[in-house]
Amino acid sequence: MVETGHNHGPPPAPVAPPLGSAREAGPLADTTQSKLYFTRINTKAGFCRVRVPFSSFRPVNPEDPPLDPFLAHTLTIRFEPRRQKPIEAPVGSNQDLRSFKLILEYIKALPTGQETDFVLVSCTGQGIEASRREQVLKAKRAGEDSLRRSGLGYTIIRPGPLKEEPGGQRALIFDQGNRILQGISCADVADICVKALHDSTARNKSFDVCHEYVAEQGQELYELVAHLPDKANNYLTPALAALEKNT
């Protein structure tokens, strides 16, 4: 995926700024095999940030194969105004209706892969004073949303209240749905973070986790599925396999 940040302002005189919506017929990718690929993105006046998946590029020659991002070596941007309003210009001067002003802040390629790029430890809200809980959760959720929109492969972990005790001593509960109430040791959370970095099952998933507990009779919210943390086996893969992605 390619991300561009640019400031699209009015073109310099004597050409008037384009009216209505406009579009950029780019980025335009060139490859080492001299094949051209293009895609179109919408733009607007002022600063804007646009993300363009490599999958959206189409070959200029319909007979060429799909774009291989690893072969692309040149990226260009072309502006296509839908319509422009001519203005009065000095006698003898020529107006180029294709002229425009574009300040390109940056272009960057966002990584993709099977494993997680970024692990974020958030919280469930349990153990926080009631007077501050809503404020804390609002800030935490905003951080989670920013990570999801970043284009990075992510894992968001929401542990119950953290405890200073040895890890690997109690089974862990993994869930989605804000139903976890119990705490968890800091050591167990750290182990989950490390394992999530190298487990493709954890990519693009958000989940709650706490120590196993036995619900009081009549208070069972869901079937408890516990996984005992053990350095000798990978408990994270089966624990996360049943959870939904892109959450």
TrEMBL record:
InterPro entries reported in the protein's UniProt record: NAD(P)-bd_dom, NAD(P)-bd_dom_sf
Domain of life per record: Eukaryota
Domain NAD(P)-binding, residue spans: 133-199
Annotated spans, Disordered: 1-26
Name used for this protein in its record: NAD(P)-binding domain-containing protein
